[in-house]
Amino acid sequence: MSIRVTIAVDVMGSDKGPKSIISGAALSKERHPESDYIFFGDYNLINKAISEYSILKNCSEVIGTEFVVNPDDKPSSVLRKSKNTSMGEALDWLKNKKVDALVSAGNTGALMALSKFKLRTLSGISRPAIATTIPHANGEFVMLDLGANVECNTENFIQFAIMGSEFAKIILGKEKPKIGILNVGTEQEKGKLVLQEASEHLKKSYLSKQYSGFVEGDTITNGVVDVVVTDGFTGNIALKTAEGIAKLCSFYIKKMFLGNLLGKIAYLLIKKSLGLLKAKLDPRTRNGALFLGLNGIVVKSHGGADALSFASAIDIALEFSKEGVGKKIIKGLDNLKSSGDINID
User: Fold this and answer.
1) Please, are residues 40 and 9 in contact by the beta-carbon 8 Å criterion?
2) Pairwise CA distance, residues 65 & 93, whole Å
3) What predicted TM-score, i.e. pTM, was given to this entire model?
């Protein structure tokens, strides 16, 4: 018998409105019958959207909230007025363990600030980091941070490496995942001083055998490392650039094969293979990034996510909740901190 998993969903954070969020939940429900949902936001709008999906009627509850965290709201102001917002109330439910995980497509900075304030970080972790998996030539790699922390110090990079390593062990099944710091060159003297200092610390830590040094943007998709560590500013740009290139590749492939009769004939012959390629390149199937380092499972979706994309984010939340992945990360981080090999406080 499958274990029931309840997901809190911030419905009001999406650029596309509540309908795409509810549609995404319905799609995820089809794939995961054991899931239940608590939707937070405009009571009438959400119930109207749910009424179009019979699959959600007996497995969902709506918590009406009066206010919304807007895309341009500053984290500092959100902390003062989070009460009765869809994001704030959803986080309260997660904090009080009424739900197993939370998914939001809302303001990244606000979500990070509220999550840290309400859930608190794990012992020894100063800042949460956004992490996800990205495809490479032979599989996938983990990348963090993807937007939670624009500015980072040496301590942050070391903590990201620790969290990324534990994340990769679980998600990628790697016993000793290789770690690299994203930089403008592979030489130790290249890049910012903070990166050089973090690199030196990792070389001397218990992660030394896993640490591969600096990696560049044009090699991370070759599978040279399993974990790519970077600050949120660089990571977010790298991720969105990769997604843009994937869309461009799909556009050129479509244009090449559908531009003339011979191309259309060739397309019919390899349609199945192209379909598999398209699915691998489609960023919507990989939407959803985890906030690592919190006392709770928070998954951040793209603000512009459509139904398929948001369903992928919910799938990630379900995956982490079912097997107690979050608890394993917490245990791993506690063990790493108690090892005494490196001071991360």
Assistant:
1) yes
2) 13
3) 0.84
**Mean pLDDT, all residues of the chain:** 87
pLDDT digits (tens, 9 = 90+) for 189-215: 899 999 999 999 999 888 889 999 999
User: Highest mean pLDDT range out of 13-22, 33-42, 78-87, 259-268?
Assistant: 33-42
CB 295 within 8 A of CB 271: no
Helices (H) and strands (E) in the chain, counts: 12, 11
**Among 166, 171, 170, residue whose Cα is nearest residue 210:** 166
How far does the chain reach from its first CA to its final CA, in angstroms?
Answer: 42
User: Are 179 and 227 within 8 A, CB to CB?
Assistant: yes
**Distance of alpha carbon 10 from alpha carbon 87, whole angstroms:** 5
One-letter amino acid for residue 303 of the chain: G
Q: Is 320 exposed, middle or buried (0-12, 13-18, 19+ CB in 10 A)?
A: buried
Residue 132 · residue 290 · CB < 8 Å: yes
- pLDDT value of position 345: 46
For 314, the token pair is 């919910």
Domains, in order of start, for the chain: 1-125+293-345 (3.40.718.10), 132-284 (3.40.718.10)
Can you give the pLDDT at residue 331?
Answer: 64
- The Cα–Cα gap between 232 and 149 comes to 5
